[in-house]
Give the backbone structure.
Amino acid sequence: MPLENKGEITFEDQLNTSETGVNNVLNLLSEYNLVATFFCTVNFAKNRPLVIQRIVREGHEVASHGYFHNAFSPDDYQKSKSELDKLSGGDLVGFRMARMQPVDYTKMKEVGYLYDSSLNPTFIPGRYNHLKKPYFWHLMPNGLVEIPSAVTRQYRIPLFWLSFHNFPLKFYFFCLNRVLRNPGYAVLYFHPWEFTNLNEYPERNIPYIIRRNSGDQMIHRFRKMLEYYLAKGVSFDTTRNFLNDAGAFTTEK
């Protein structure tokens, strides 16, 4: 993102920022004994293998986020899965394309993925218009499962990372409560660097709407969300476990 906005950041600083953020997230999840899905690029995993080992050791799911975040080729479906399988010691079943861009469901199925979570079924100006796409998990014609990120059924208000930074928490919870009623679950997604203080680096030229409520404020807001929903009896799980429990991988089409 800094490079896209003509800011300055070295590759090592990119890795260190993500590493710090991931550890902050892992510390939070460990504090509440919760698990989540981590969509990782091979580029990060190869350069920070100890972070991947911690993710696996603490019971979280590792899924593919491609080989690089800023470039993609059709071979990356297979290459990223193979490399991440080796680095994580498991058999990856999930994929999310960087920037929630379109994917090749046929290719994904061929190389062994069971689900994709690259769909944000809303309208983001300059990015995509998915207002007519399903907002709930569903089977694609080839049997691959698509599980979109959370949006409200009415008006398709997205509850992704940028909303979490900028919506008042009461309004965010209001929207999320509606999603938890229909379709009955919510796929929320964030980036590790959001859990670091982005305001400390003006040279990175990161827009205010992204820097807002980052670092300690993000950790505080995230903790408030966890405590609010845990008190309401809401459960948290990995994407793989959720879809498996829902029968998504065994439903015959």
